[in-house]
Amino acid sequence: MMKSNEILSLREVSKSFSATERGGEPIQILDSVNLTLQSATSIAITGKSGSGKSTLLQISAGLLSLDKGVVLFDQKNLTDLKDDQLSKIRSKSMGFIFQSSLLLDDFTALENVQIPAMIAGVSEKLAKERALELLEQVGLSNRLTHKSDQLSGGERQRVAIARSLVNRPLVLFADEPTGSLDERNAAVIEDMLLDLVQEKQVALMLITHNNAFASRCSHVYHLHDRHVEVFA
Amino acid sequence: MHTVFLLAKRYAFSSENRHKGTSIRIASGLALCLFAITMVLSFMQALQKNQFEDIRTFESYDLQIALDSNDLQAGYELVDRLETLAEVDHAFLYAEIPTLIQTPEGSTLAGRIRAIDPKGIFEDKVNSYRGTLYTQGTLSSSYLHTKDLNLGSQVNVTILKKGRQATVIPSQKEMTIGSIYYTSMYDFDSSTFLTDLPTLYALNGDVPLFIGIFSSYESEETKQAIKLMEPKLEISTWKEANASLYGAMQLEQSMMTLMLFLMVLVVIIHIRNSSRRLLLAKQREIAMLRSMGLRRNQVQSLFIYQAVLVAVVGCTAGVLLSYLGITVYPSFSDFVYSSMGVHLKLTIKPLELVALVASILIFSSFAAYVGTRRILKADIMEMFAHDEVK
Predict the structure, then answer these.
(1) pLDDT in tens, B318-376
(2) What is the pTM of this model?
(3) Which domain holds residue B250?
(4) Are B334 and B373 part of one and the same domain?
(5) Residue A148 belongs to domain spanning
(6) Which residue of A102, A119, A147 is in closest CB contact with B293?
């Protein structure tokens, strides 16, 4: 059973990948991993490159299938859900920020934030209002009509943060959100992300190499040798 | 669904779309394919219609009745009775015999002498170039032989007649070319010499007599109506009487249909490859949209809408091009005449065009459906890799 304030719980989760596209011995990435995330708290997962941090995040968000184990999100087992149900959860209860600030290249900053809300069933007008508000909060009021290739790396990441919060999710999954930014921009994004998460009472699962950034979260886990260790 | 349609519109042709060039290339390809198929279809049909019309002009009947006697009087009476039927527009008597014609220069032409009761519709079908057609005791020669035979030329006619001891014996008679005629099918009419019935029967009294019938109704329908009136008559339709010729033309039609099928195959491959190209270009965006909560069937709908939008634009351009082609064709018809010897009247059958457009739309939707289905089988994170999902 999930504890009442647990929003995400991973139990005995295992995942392996084929060594090559043609098959071969599978490489075990995660082995019987257990992890929990309480509502409106933040956890950071650190570890070496290739240790499986991103895989863990993707499995937690139902973006990647798992070999064994259970992922409970808001008291629902993600592995048992059909595509429609999983899509609904992704739309309304999850937000994503990827390292490379993936934006829809054919759309403006405003549209990039507006579209997830519209997918969630929010009217175009309301979606626009929410998008405008969030873009203002991340300091991009003057970049509304700019497309991805007209924005800097830091600005793109700020659009991604606004987009991830537009549907007021329960959990925000951030995969190395400052990984591709310079130190100054990274610091701005770190502050902005943690402030917004706190302000909007959203749980955060953060993947990072940056120990200082990780230490600002409620709990820090270290992924080592296919297992999760509580670090702090 | 509103959001999905908005996204599809943007992905299809919006000026904001990075892949607009691909959409335009696909639509242009579809337009050109549709134009090419429509024009080929139109040319094929016009050419065949022209050939059928030419042959029918000369053969001059929809149905043929072989009479069991060559009694002209009885033949005329039957013609009158047949013409009372609503299905019969015009009936006429005719007969023909194979012949060898020796020209004044000594060359020999092999062919037939056909005698026709030149009343009614038939009179308009064969035209006189010189002299009066069907003048008793004379022959009409084709315009094609004017180098060897002209008005007043004396020719030696050899025909086969029933003999007293042998089954058939050759018989010769000198005759005058009393007129020159022309039709629109030179290679066919060149072997025929025309005359009137009394002249033919004066040459050979044993030639079987036929009745030719024009009908605006279906040949089979007219055949049944005549059978009801005269059950004992031996009736054959134009197609039955010219089975080998008709068979050859049908073979030609089948070959053309095969060519058309190959063109359609090219279109199908074009649609399939284009759809694949467009989808692969959008694979990362599909992954992003999925992570935002867009369902599999919504992604499929999005790309089906997009494919249909591109196909609609392509088909519209193709239809416009086709009608433009038909409109400007008369300016080039002289060139076609000089190279092919035919005047073709091109038309577009709207039903065929609708069927072609519908096929393109259906296949475009199908290709988009299959393409997205294939991509969507992968996990969202695999799609982000942007490599082709196998």
Answers:
(1) 999 999 999 998 887 777 777 766 778 888 889 989 998 999 999 989 988 988 888 88
(2) 0.67
(3) 2-54+246-385
(4) yes
(5) 6-230
(6) A119
Please tell me whether residues B270 and B349 are part of one structural domain. yes
Domain total for chain B? 2
Asked whether residue B390 is domain-assigned, the answer is no
Burial letters for B258-284: b for 16+ Cβ neighbours within 10 Å, e otherwise? eeeeeebeebbebbbebbbebbbebbb
Element (H, E) at A171: strand A171-175
Q: CA of A106 to nearest chain B CA: how many angstroms apart? A: 5
Residue B16's closest chain A neighbor by CA? A106
Which tokens go with A11? 């139990």
Taking an 8 Å Cβ-Cβ cutoff, which residues of chain A contact chain B? Answer: 58, 61, 63-65, 83-84, 87-92, 96, 98, 102-108, 115-116, 118-120, 124, 147, 163, 167
Q: Residue A105 is nearest to which of B18, B290, B381, comparing CB atoms?
A: B18
| Chain-chain contact of A90 with B289 (C-beta, under 8 angstroms) | no
- Chain A contact set for B3 (CB, 8 A): 115, 118-119
Q: How far apart are CA B115 and CA B112, in angstroms?
A: 10
For residue B45, give the nearest of B35, B34, B37 by alpha carbon.
B37
The ipTM estimated for the assembled molecules is 0.85
For A107, nearest residue in chain B (alpha carbons): B16
- Coil, helix or strand for B138? strand
**Is there a single domain that holds both residue B178 and residue B191?**
yes
